[in-house]
User: What shape does this take?
Amino acid sequence: MKSIALVCGEFHRKSVEKMVEYAKKEAKSLGIQISDVVWVPGSFEVPLASSRLLSQENILGVACLGVIERGETDHGLVIGQAVLSSLLNLQIEHNKPIGLGIIGPGAENHHIAPRLDPHARSAISAVHSMID
Assistant: This one.
């Protein structure tokens, strides 16, 4: 069975725990095993945890789940761009897929709940489609 990992931002833990449930359901439907679920403080730490997982031979890909909400400054936007850029580079460096299930940047409270399921499932689906 194909084995992948999840990297989850803890800052919005209750929402991301729901995303983990949806991701596990999607993975099961696609015949993928989620071997590791790694929690990190926030989205900024997602690339390092992803790199560590992708360096393991048994991990074929990583799905990243989290939320970057809208704040009063552009901090979230800057973090989101840095995380995305880092994750793109990690895919190329490790030659393994990363599914992006991070809601935002710029998410407001009313954006989060309706996006939990589709973002989590899409991240798993993207990894699945790129494994082979």
Summary: The first strand starts at residue 2 and ends at 9.
